[in-house]
Design brief:
Layout (H helix, E strand, L loop, with lengths): L5 H7 L6 E3 L2 E3 L8 H15 L4 H7 E3 L6 E3 L8 H18 L7 H17 L2 H17 L3 E4 L22 E5 L3 E12 L6 E4 L14 E6 L5 E5 L22 E12 L3 E4 L5 H37 L6 H26 L2 E3 L2 E3 L2 H26 L2 H4 L3 H5 L1 H10 L8 H15 L2 H12 L4 H11 L2 H11 L9
Parallel strand pairs: 1-10, 5-8
Antiparallel strand pairs: 1-2, 3-4, 6-7, 7-11, 8-9, 9-12, 10-11, 13-14
Helix pairs in contact: 1-2, 4-7, 4-8, 5-6, 5-7, 7-8, 7-9, 7-13, 8-9, 9-13, 9-15, 13-14
Bound molecules: flavin-adenine dinucleotide (FAD).
The site of flavin-adenine dinucleotide has 20 residues, from β5, β7 and α14.
């Protein structure tokens, strides 16, 4: 069963997992009005691997490197720039085809790829074998994974061992011959309630006295002691919305509580090796920011398209200041695309594993996050106040008022009022809605804060080279010295 069907995936979620949302315990998440949307979003990924279109199927399915058996391409550990470019292509196509975020396997494999790199650097055969065996388990059963990295962290100014209680960071509380017992909570974990396997990675660098916090492992979602407390999402479309026939795509995040959870040794990738915790967190962040910038390209393309279309519907597409704004919009999107491709094209090799270029991946994520709100403002500006005040589909359908709306809400002659209204509603989703506010915060924090990206940019940039060049230019050192 190397490639599952959407139904097989859904069935696998009825496994006794402990899930709460809006204060209620949910026994079957596939039938829940909010969590069912998450399940369907992930299930759509299984439709890509089952696609009848060979161009789609060949992108999402790859031969197992040893057996040749078909496996999900997310489970191909990147060995070169082509593998990284394929990962970008997969993520982008999945958004184009199914709409919405694709995180069915991405974050989990970002964690696992980082665990591979670090197991190799540690030279610990047991961890390397564990990572290989776990990857084979994912390949064989085509499992959905989530990546649990972010700890709740308590007082951010204090290290894990200096907090009011020891559980603000996930840690080992016991060990025996069979395995380890862990306690703590991971927060904001995308699609966690609908995952088959949770992959845990430390949230930060740990110090010598924090060995118990330097822990990484994988565990099934229905393991005893695990509870998911989920964000309430939007649920399905209402009949007030235009284009309500398309599926909503959303992935609910959850706090995952680990209440003395037993993890067998064969599922452990790090336990106590605090010296490698930074490499693990850092390598995960690089893989994950690369995933992020890949999916953000098609996301911002649609938003940019709303601005282009609204300029036309409003009859302003030839006007100077609007064209100036469209140029800024295009530059934002294309800079992101260029950096994403560059990060894949210039990987850093750890043994035989290709890690996306860390400097470029962080620059791309910083570009995306730091300029996103200005990008949104440009779309709001071009669209006009109607993005905040538009009537909804029910108004349009009411014969008492329909003709007023048709008559008064037209724009440029060559477009129908209905198409203008549909485009207004699409733009509203992205720049004036509950969903758009969610994305504004997500942009700043998901995949790490901007401070985290700047920290990695400083580590990876040749600051000393810049300085030497300036010193040579100033005549302080000879130009031959740099
Ligand atoms: C929608 C969404 C989905 C997510 N999905 C996942 C996921 O699937 N898996 C996962 O593991 N995580 C996920 N995250 C978590 C994300 O990585 C974190 O939000 C991010 O790392 C910031 O952490 P935080 O939210 O705890 O914010 P905080 O750490 O509280 O940061 C708030 C501010 O404080 C600053 N700050 C924090 N600590 C310090 C310090 N010690 N010194 C100086 N400044 C500091 C930060 O730079 C930031 O400016 C997701 C987040 C969102 C919003």
């Amino acid at each position: 069963m190397a490639i599952r069907t959407a139904d097989e995936y859904k069935k696998s979620l009825r496994d006794g997992r402990r899930v709460y949302i809006r204060g209620q315990k949910v026994d079957d998440i596939t039938k829940h009005p909010i969590l069912g949307v998450t399940v369907d979003t992930i299930a759509a990924g299984y439709e890509l691997t089952a696609s009848k279109d060979p161009a789609v199927r060949d992108l999402f399915v790859a031969p197992h490197p040893k057996t040749g058996e078909p496996v999900n391409r997310y489970f191909i550990t990147p060995k070169n720039k082509e593998d990284l470019a394929n990962r970008t292509k997969m993520i982008q196509r999945s958004i184009e085809i199914i709409g919405g975020l694709p995180f069915g396997k991405d974050i989990g494999t970002d964690c696992l790829n980082a665990a591979f790199v670090v197991a190799g650097q540690m030279g610990k055969k047991q961890y390397q074998d564990n990572a290989v065996n776990f990857l084979e388990h994912l390949r064989k059963n085509d499992l959905h994974t989530c990546g649990a990295v972010t700890c709740v962290k308590g007082d951010r100014s204090k290290e894990p061992s200096k907090q009011k209680h020891p559980d603000y960071y996930l840690h080992v509380v016991d060990k025996n011959k069979e395995g380890i017992v862990v306690k703590g909570a991971k927060i904001h974990i995308t699609s966690a309630p609908a995952a088959n396997e949770i992959i845990v990675v430390p949230t930060r660098q740990m110090r010598e006295d924090e060995g118990d916090y330097a822990v990484s492992f994988a565990i099934p979602a229905n393991t005893k002691g695990i509870t998911f407390i989920c964000r309430g999402g939007r649920g399905t479309w209402s009949d007030h919305e235009f284009h309500a026939d398309r599926p909503v795509r959303e992935l609910t995040e959850a706090i995952i509580i680990f209440d003395n959870v037993f993890v067998p040794w064969e599922r452990v990738f790090m336990c106590g090796e605090w010296q490698y915790s930074m490499l693990l967190a850092y390598t995960f962040a690089t893989f994950h920011r690369f995933t992020a910038i890949s999916y953000k390209v098609p996301a911002v393309e649609v938003m940019a398209g709303c601005a282009v279309a609204m300029a036309k519907y409003n009859g302003l597409d030839k006007v100077g200041h609007i064209r100036d704004k469209l140029a800024d919009i295009a530059a934002y999107v294309e800079t992101l695309r260029a950096l994403t491709n560059a990060a894949a094209n210039d990987p850093v090799m750890y043994g035989d594993i290709a890690v996306p270029n860390p400097l470029i991946a962080n620059m791309a994520k910083l570009h995306f996050a730091s300029k996103y709100h200005a990008f949104v403002e440009l779309i709001q500006d071009i669209g006009g106040g109607i993005l905040a005040t538009a009537p909804d589909k029910k108004d349009w359908e009411n014969p008492d008022i329909h003709d007023y709306l048709e008559h008064y809400l037209g724009g440029a002659d060559k477009y129908s009022t209905l198409d203008r209204l549909k485009m207004i509603h699409e733009a509203m989703r992205h720049v004036c809605s509950h969903e758009s506010a969610f994305h504004e915060v997500t942009t700043v924090h998901a995949e790490g804060s901007m401070a985290a990206q700047k920290m990695m940019i400083l580590v990876e940039s040749p600051l000393q080279r810049y300085e030497m060049m300036a010193m040579a230019a100033a005549g302080i050192i000879s130009s031959k010295q740099h």
